[in-house]
# Entry
Amino acid sequence: MAVKPEQKLFHDLKKQLEKANKTIHLVRVENLIGQGTPDLNCCYDGVEFWLELKADDGRIPRLSKYQIAWHYRRYKSGGRSFILQRTLKQEHLKLFEGSGTRDLGTWSPVFELPLPVPASRSDFPLPVSRLPFVEVFDYIKHNY
# Structure
């Protein structure tokens, strides 16, 4: 059975954060809690936030009306939530603030980086400082 793109995104994220030996607690949330609840609750070096994972090629991530409502309610309550999109064709990671769901017309990533493509097999493994998911989580930690 093939792994879905969002499952691969989660496994890659978890693997890189474990490799970096960061202080992190990830809780994968199944949709038994309620429609629109993000995929992960994260606590990273003392910063707690929710993270929705998306793997698609849209300019902005495709969200259901329930996901949009959840992120907006979290924003209105003073909480932190984000959507992490892996674009499939361009191989970029894009981080969007959940608060941006209140105006999807002007929503844009707050952080974006290309996923590294090695010139040769000798380029792997990447040093911890260059692991893209660590960079994303460090951005959240230092900016929110």
Remarks:
- The two ends are 38 Å apart (CA to CA).
- Residues 5-19 form the longest helix (15 residues).
- Confidence is low (pLDDT under 50) at residues 119-124.
